[in-house]
């Protein structure tokens, strides 16, 4: 069957809406007293975006519909018809670049979707690949469920949810990802749903839950969703379901170019298309027929929702620290490959600068080794950027759904990374330090390792800041490497402080670069107290380390090396606070967007209050069987 344009006549549309509103007022209050759930209704919903050519473009055009408890509403239509935009609008997730008008009511009230009452599953699967199914759900349960609930109860809920979604046979299987085999795509999708329904939300949004899955996996995912419908209102956008999946739907909203073509019982859609001259061919999947038909590309007050509580700040911080630690331990690319690389480089440094001695030549060699350690061993921390981006994706999904806040994420991420950064700074640092014959004494080595550790943590913080702003792998690494390159150049080693151009390079970059304090701290740690023999040209005169610091490296001697370390620690804290500020700002932007899109006008509070009749909207199936006369 070829592609056919099926458009409702404007007069018929308006007439049917008018009749529908009259009928809605007549049945007001029939529902809500029978069930305690969420009745979501929307009327004359428009969403527009700005364009350069025409000013504004309408994505959704005057949509009216409803979703009722214990029912699964499927939003279908060809690509670009506005399915995801409709879900975002109903869930209050539209960007600031969009404008929304129309009325959205929750149980007849204008109220925000508070934590625990609503869950949203996006198309992207942001899961930690190193965790098992059981661990992922357990950690999520500990983060989301309130502290008043016992740990055994949380575990019971987690296990029950896993069984409800049919994942009990995969409980001890790792999720898997790039380079590691794990659970299937359908199981990942069901796992994502598991983590969102732990709080038993009354309203569940699912954006393309079967995207990328074969028909069998799609059926298992959707049947698992359908089993969760009791007392829960489920709205799912879906592109092209199989006949088996289509039979699971209670209601159908069929969109084309941002307009409603059909809204009503899914079982009545075939009759509607047949009455309008587009009968479904025998043995053809109804959803395929609907999409080919509409695709224009190729031719009384209800229950007041109460915000639920979740785990407190301390519990969330501890759980996130533990979960992140497990992920870092199991993800070879996070720290272990870097650790092996650092050990190899440390062995190389130690062999090249083996037993430096105290002659004149050793002065330059010590300086070169310090510069390599501070500049390039810390620079290699950018290799962890892909892992940082994955962490940010998981955080953004879980934070948007209210699992935990920004502060707990920053604390958990920081605490979990400290042991691993200590490992990759102390062990390779010890190898390079001992082989090269740097200053004797445990105090000198500890200072050397602490400066290396703090510098690595600073670079990790810098890359986390970049990941929070630029989530693209390639662009993030380029930007992070560029910032570090500027700091290295202005740090006072590759060009001595007195020779740096005053504008920009000396003021302010030289004083802003953490490399300045790392260079100078390590130089003081290494040269103070040593004596060197100037054996050039047979002089054999003795030089003190302090003289070399002042004359050769132009080190600021007015304060001790511990001040340099303190400045580094302060820089680390500042970078982490900036990271917190960035993600907190992003969170406030999202919440402001949700608040702005959830402001509903009083005039609509009586139009679609509690329930709607089961007959389809917009004249899509008539109140009588006769066609409407548009004349």
Secondary structure layout plus pairing:
Layout lengths: L9 H18 L12 E12 L3 E13 L3 E6 L6 H9 L6 E9 L11 E4 L11 H12 L6 H14 L20 H12 L6 E5 L7 H12 L6 E5 L5 H4 L4 E6 L2 E7 L3 H7 L10 H9 L18 H18 L1 H21 L7 H20 L5 H16 L5 H31 L5 H28 L3 H17 L13 E2 L2 E2 H4 L1 H14 L3 E4 L6 E4 H7 L9 H37 L34
Helix pairs in contact: 3-4, 3-10, 5-6, 10-14, 11-14, 12-15, 12-18, 13-15, 14-15, 14-20, 15-16, 15-18, 15-20, 18-19, 18-20
Give a verbal description of the structure.
By secondary structure, the chain is an alpha/beta fold. The protein folds into two domains: 254 residues, Rossmann fold (3-Layer(aba) Sandwich); 275 residues, no CATH class. The chain contains 20 helices and 13 strands. A hairpin with a 3-residue loop joins β1 and β2.
């Amino acid at each position: 069957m070829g592609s056919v344009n099926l458009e409702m006549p404007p007069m018929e549309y308006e007439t049917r809406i008018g009749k529908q509103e009259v009928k809605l007022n007549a049945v007001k209050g029939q529902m809500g007293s029978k069930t305690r759930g969420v009745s979501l209704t929307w009327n004359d919903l428009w969403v527009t975006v700005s364009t350069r050519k025409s000013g504004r473009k309408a994505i959704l055009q005057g949509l009216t519909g409803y979703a009722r408890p214990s029912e699964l509403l499927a939003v279908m239509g060809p690509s670009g018809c506005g399915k995801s935009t409709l879900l975002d609008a109903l869930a209050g997730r539209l960007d600031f670049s969009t404008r929304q008008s129309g009325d959205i009511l929750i149980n007849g009230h204008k109220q925000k979707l508070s934590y625990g009452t609503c869950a949203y599953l996006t198309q992207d699967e942001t899961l930690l690949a190193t965790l098992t199914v059981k661990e992922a759900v357990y950690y999520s349960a500990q983060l989301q469920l309130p502290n008043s609930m016992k740990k055994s109860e949380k575990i019971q809920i987690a296990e029950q949810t896993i069984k409800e979604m049919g994942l009990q046979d995969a409980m001890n299987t790792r999720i898997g990802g790039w380079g590691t085999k794990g659970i299937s795509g359908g199981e990942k999708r069901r796992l994502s749903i598991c983590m969102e329904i732990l709080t038993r939300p009354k309203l569940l949004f699912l954006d393309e839950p079967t995207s990328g899955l074969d028909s069998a996996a799609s059926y298992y995912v959707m049947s698992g969703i359908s089993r969760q419908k009791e007392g829960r209102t489920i709205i799912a956008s879906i592109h092209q379901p199989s006949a088996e999946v289509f039979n699971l739907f209670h209601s159908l909203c069929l969109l084309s170019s941002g307009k409603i073509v059909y809204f009503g019982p899914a079982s009545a859609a075939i009759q509607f298309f047949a009455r309008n001259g587009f009968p479904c061919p025998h043995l053809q999947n109804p959803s395929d027929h609907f999409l080919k038909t509409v695709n224009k590309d190729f031719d009384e007050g209800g229950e007041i929702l109460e915000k639920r509580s979740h785990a407190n700040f301390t519990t969330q911080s501890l759980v996130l620290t533990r979960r992140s630690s497990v992920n870092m331990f199991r993800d070879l690319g996070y720290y272990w490959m870097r650790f092996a690389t650092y050990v190899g480089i440390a062995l190389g440094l130690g062999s090249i600068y083996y037993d430096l001695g105290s002659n004149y030549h050793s002065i330059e060699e010590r300086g070169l080794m310090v510069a390599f350690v501070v500049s390039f061993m810390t620079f290699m921390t950018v290799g962890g950027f892909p892992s940082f981006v994955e962490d940010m994706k998981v955080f953004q999904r879980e934070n948007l759904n209210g699992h935990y806040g920004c502060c707990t994420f920053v604390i958990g991420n920081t605490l979990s990374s400290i042991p691993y950064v200590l490992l990759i700074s102390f062990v390779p640092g010890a190898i390079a330090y001992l082989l090269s014959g740097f200053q004797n004494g445990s105090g000198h080595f500890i200072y050397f390792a602490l400066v290396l550790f703090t510098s690595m943590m600073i670079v990790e913080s810098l890359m986390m800041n970049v990941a929070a702003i630029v989530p693209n792998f390639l662009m993030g690494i380029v930007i992070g490497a560029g910032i570090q390159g500027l700091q290295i150049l202005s740090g006072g080693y590759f060009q001595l402080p007195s020779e740096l151009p005053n504008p920009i390079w000396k003021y302010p970059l030289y004083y802003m670069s953490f490399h300045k304090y790392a260079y100078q701290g390590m130089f003081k740690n290494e040269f103070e107290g040593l004596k060197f023999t100037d054996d050039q040209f047979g002089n054999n005169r003795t030089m003190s380390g302090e003289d070399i610091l002042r004359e050769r490296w132009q080190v600021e001697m007015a304060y001790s090396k511990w001040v340099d370390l303190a400045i580094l620690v302060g820089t680390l804290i500042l970078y982490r606070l900036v990271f917190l500020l960035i993600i907190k700002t992003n969170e406030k932007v999202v919440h402001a967007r949700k608040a702005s899109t959830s402001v509903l006008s009083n005039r609509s509070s009586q139009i679609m209050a509690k329930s709607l009749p089961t007959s389809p909207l917009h004249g899509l199936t008539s109140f009588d069987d006769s066609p409407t006369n548009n004349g």
